[in-house]
Backbone:
């Protein structure tokens, strides 16, 4: 078999599996599902992916992944988009925790945490942002004080998505009051189910609550849950953030935008005079997928890879916003609720994962080398 | 060609006085505190004669022009208060029946995307609101709407779907479109002001975010766009043949301003409590209503 044949047979297998595995309720009545039902379906989806052998396609088999490449990851998500598959609730674990542990974690940490993420039994969240540290993430003030066998962490995080469902968090905290900026932070794996942690959910403009404030009051982290060395936190977080804004993230977003654009094309925009606009959005969305595939040929060379992936976050987020902006203006009664919700929800996509302004600064500084 | 773009003295004074009354009743509270409750009692509106400002002088009204109402509507839009003041002012201007009545009034406007003859009626879920059956014709009539179920998406407008629409004479419909568009523009300007204020105080990287050119340029554009939007509704009020396109333009650009204001506020802008979404929700529903006025 040639590599292309391999890909073809992988894709056919994935399509067959998806056609029987995507829950009908999700495919057909998504708009009518309650918040709890959605969370349950997303949980269940993670477990199904694992049982079906589609969890962690590009993660080594020793950690419970499938040991395939990024290309399979892309192919699978393309098929998942066509099948209107749900997005698992374990996305932070898979997209952020795993690549970070593969790059910087100890063998013990990988063995302890990656399998639960792969199996969909442990949900993770990302406790980075703080009231005073949003775009300026290096400004985190939450402090991890050394104690017997570990650290006691005190401070406040905000905008922590999935916190209410999460067993664990990747946490960025200060470990030194004297070391300079970028050298004073450490990266921890935090148990969210402990007495020192209190949550307050935040109500979003869409009237749902997917994120929380997290209050840490002497929450304990064991020495064995420090990733890398003390003071390496910023560098390690950069790995996390690059994953968050990178190719795998983009391809999962492609799935979500594809679902919305298909609804628009097959229902809401039919018979209206926005045909040209919709076709352009469709072209731009397919370009997201092709941009990722093009970049995959450069995955061995960090800089060249980054040159080709640095714009993905801006690309999919602004596109998604335009899709929902158009859709909500078309007054399609069958999808009114859906579009109102998506329109409000997608106001956040240009803010989270590092705002698009920050991403443009990064392209200017790191890719183009413009003077600061 | 009009000699001046300015409102008359009636318009200018009304706008200033209305702003003061609003200020007193909301008492410095953020929009999230008052957008969902009766924050400005109807009796205050009626006692002040606000509902009659655009009734012709020959009927003992304030005699405000459409250009004047553009001024008043912007002030009203900046506050996002859940009362049908603008609809009532307009109804009394156009209908003898309305002038006979007291209490809040509204209309039911053709809904787009359906063919069952139903209408969307802002404030119809508000107790004692009279919904006009027709306006601008000899046979004006009002129904006190059954307390229908309000569409929760737009708390400040509390619109309900009614099985019929108000028959509105063309010139009256044009005026209502202009007034609603001006309300939206007032809301957009308010969001620009809030964004500027936020950019001056929110610090990241040891500086106010307004010092970053990405934010500074966006705000400069937002200021310019808010100006275009305002010019468009003034134009719409003074040149009837261009009202429709000028209003659509003003509303479109206002919605974009609301979206951008959320971006400037970062994560805070995405919270219910910050309240930017209340304005955005009102704008989206107004866009739909305005489109329904102009077939
Ligand atoms: C829905 C949602 C989910 C989130 N989930 C998580 C999560 O799970 N975990 C987590 O840790 N965080 C999460 N975040 C937080 C997110 O990463 C921050 O909101 C984001 O980094 C922006 O920070 P901020 O909100 O403090 O805005 P600010 O940093 O205050 O930014 C305000 C505005 O200023 C601009 N700005 C700031 N600095 C500059 C600059 N130097 N140049 C140009 N423009 C600038 C920004 O782009 C923005 O427009 C989430 C946010 C949202 C909205």
Residues:
């Amino acid at each position: 078999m040639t590599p292309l044949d391999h890909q073809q047979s992988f894709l056919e297998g994935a399509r067959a599996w998806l056609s029987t595995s995507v829950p009908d309720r999700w495919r057909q009545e998504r708009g009518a599902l309650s918040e709890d039902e959605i969370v349950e379906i997303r949980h269940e989806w993670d477990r199904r992916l694992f049982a079906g052998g589609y969890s962690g396609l590009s993660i080594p088999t020793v950690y419970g992944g499938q040991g395939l490449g990024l290309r399979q990851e892309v192919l699978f998500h393309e098929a998942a988009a066509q099948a209107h598959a749900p997005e698992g609730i374990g996305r932070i674990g898979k997209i952020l925790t795993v690549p970070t542990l593969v790059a910087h974690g100890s063998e013990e940490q990988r063995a302890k945490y990656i399998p639960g993420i792969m199996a969909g039994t442990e949900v993770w969240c990302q406790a980075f942002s703080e009231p005073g540290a949003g775009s300026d993430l290096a400004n985190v003030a939450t402090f991890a004080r050394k104690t017997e066998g570990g650290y006691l962490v005190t401070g406040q995080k905000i905008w922590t998505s999935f916190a209410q469902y999460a067993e664990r968090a990747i946490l960025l905290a200060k470990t030194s009051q004297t070391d300079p900026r970028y050298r004073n932070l450490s990266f921890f794996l935090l148990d969210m189910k402990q007495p020192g942690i209190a949550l307050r959910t935040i109500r979003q403009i869409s009237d749902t609550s997917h994120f929380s404030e997290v209050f840490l009051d002497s929450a304990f982290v064991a020495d064995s849950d420090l990733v890398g060395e003390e003071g390496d936190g910023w560098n390690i977080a950069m790995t996390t953030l690059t994953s968050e804004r990178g190719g795998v993230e983009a391809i999962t977003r492609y799935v979500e935008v594809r679902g919305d654009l298909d609804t628009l094309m097959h229902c809401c925009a039919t018979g209206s005079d926005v045909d040209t606009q919709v076709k352009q959005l469709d072209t731009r969305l397919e370009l997201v997928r092709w941009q990722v595939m093009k970049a995959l040929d450069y995955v061995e060379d960090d800089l060249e890879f980054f040159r080709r992936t640095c714009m993905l976050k801006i690309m999919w987020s602004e596109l998604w916003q335009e899709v929902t902006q158009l859709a909500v203006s078309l007054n399609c009664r069958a999808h009114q609720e859906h579009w109102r919700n998506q329109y409000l929800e997608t106001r956040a996509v240009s803010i989270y994962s590092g705002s698009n302004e920050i991403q443009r600064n990064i392209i200017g500084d790191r890719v183009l080398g413009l003077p600061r | 060609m009009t000699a001046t773009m300015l409102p008359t003295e009636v318009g200018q004074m009304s706008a200033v006085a209305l702003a003061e009354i609003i200020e007193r009743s909301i008492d410095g509270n953020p929009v999230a505190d008052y957008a969902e409750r009766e924050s400005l009692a109807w009796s205050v509106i009626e006692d002040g004669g606000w509902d009659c400002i655009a009734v012709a002088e020959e009927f003992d009204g304030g005699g405000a022009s459409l250009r004047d109402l553009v001024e008043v509507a912007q002030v009203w839009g900046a506050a996002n208060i859940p009362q049908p003041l603008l609809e009532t002012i307009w109804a009394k201007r156009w209908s003898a029946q309305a002038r006979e009545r007291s209490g809040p009034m509204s209309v039911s406007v053709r809904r787009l995307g359906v063919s069952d003859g139903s209408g969307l009626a802002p404030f119809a879920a508000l107790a004692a609101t009279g919904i006009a059956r027709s306006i601008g014709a000899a046979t004006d009539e009002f129904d006190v709407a059954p307390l229908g179920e309000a569409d929760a998406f737009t708390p400040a407008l509390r619109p309900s779907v009614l099985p019929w629409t108000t028959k509105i004479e063309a010139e009256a419909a044009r005026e209502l479109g202009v007034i609603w568009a001006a309300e939206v523009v007032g809301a957009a300007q308010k969001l620009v002001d809030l964004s500027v204020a936020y950019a001056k105080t929110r610090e990241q990287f040891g500086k106010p975010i307004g010092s970053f050119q990405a934010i500074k340029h966006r705000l400069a554009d937002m200021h310019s766009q808010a100006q275009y939007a305002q010019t468009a509704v003034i134009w719409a009020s003074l040149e009837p043949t261009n009202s429709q396109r000028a209003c659509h333009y003003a509303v479109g650009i206002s919605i974009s301003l609301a979206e951008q204001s959320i971006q400037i506020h970062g994560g805070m802008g995405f919270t219910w409590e910050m309240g930017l979404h209340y304005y955005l929700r009102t704008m989206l529903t107004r866009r739909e209503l305005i489109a329904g006025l102009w077939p």
Observations:
- Chain A has three domains: 3-89, 124-232, 245-367.
- Residues A 125-126, 128-129, 134-135, 159-161, 211, 348, 351-352, 354-355, 357-358, 361; B 202, 204-205, 209, 212, 214-215, 263-264, 266-267, 270 surround flavin-adenine dinucleotide (CB under 6 Å).
